[in-house]
Amino acid sequence: MGAEIYDPRLYIHYGPRDASLLTDQEAHRSRAIWDNYPESLVPVVHKGTNNLPAWHPRLEPYIARTGLGMLRHFLRIEIDNDLLTAMAERWRPETHTFHLPEGEMTITLKDVAILTGLPISGDAVIGSTTKPEGGWGPLIRDRLGFDMPTTTPIQGRGHPPLNAGQVSVPWLVSHIQQEVEINDETPEEQVERYARIYLIGLVGGFLFPDKSNRWIQGIWLPLLTGDWDAIGEKSWGSAVLAGVYRELCTCSKVGAKQAGAAMFILQLWVWEHLPMFAPADPRPYRRNDDELNFLQNLPYGVKWIGANTNDHQPEHSLLFYRSELDKPW
């Protein structure tokens, strides 16, 4: 056999394929650019919720034990969908790396640990996607202290709070806000219940968001309603990075229109490693010593909170990012 010719259109999954077997939806986005019809590619829109219950200092003792409390600071980061899309077009599923003019780069566990503070050692984050006998309702009642209706539709949505093994984010948030008011006099039992809901929303809706932006997979309920310290002994950073890799593989295809996963990590990574795309001022709210002391106790990526993403400025468009990525550095 003669030498195999590399054609980026054929390396869609983990090896060469016959181009005739590829559908338009399976093809890598680079195929459309290679074939000179990039205008057919629309930006991939990130879906993720930051509609969590209000934070209260009394939640800190519980959430801190999980190692996930610092994530609430990243809820304010706005995703630049054009930047996300441009990076996905450079992502190769067979190597899990970005192919750039100067070589290959990728997000590592070290990046995740430094930028977000997520633990990267410990037990694997695993669980069953199969509903327990009787569904999730009894588990929610036993561990969270309230019943979730399975037939009453969410107002204006037409779906019940529990549906096909999923839990409604809007229902959880609205219920806890209506039923539990956190103040200095709130009983500790209610504070802990509120902290559970907050954690479920943080993990299921922010770290591992559903593309519909309103469902949390039931798998998180048993994982996040057990012992607080046991939650913190898991390698959340590894699971989140795997989710980002998987979502980039999906977003690199022509048919991709939405993205889940914790894509804020990709954006932080790009701003750190590709500074030409970073906001001009990474520290917009550093004004006094108290804020400087506050930042010293948080992950490195917190410095970007509140930074202007320039998402709505014409020069920061998908075409702009493609052009910049094509240039020698």
TrEMBL record:
<feature type="domain" description="Aminotransferase-like plant mobile">
    <location>
        <begin position="71"/>
        <end position="327"/>
    </location>
</feature>
<dbReference type="GO" id="GO:0010073">
    <property type="term" value="P:meristem maintenance"/>
</dbReference>
<dbReference type="InterPro" id="IPR019557">
    <property type="entry name" value="AminoTfrase-like_pln_mobile"/>
</dbReference>
<dbReference type="InterPro" id="IPR044824">
    <property type="entry name" value="MAIN-like"/>
</dbReference>
<dbReference type="Pfam" id="PF10536">
    <property type="entry name" value="PMD"/>
</dbReference>
<protein>
    <recommendedName>
        <fullName>Aminotransferase-like plant mobile domain-containing protein</fullName>
    </recommendedName>
</protein>
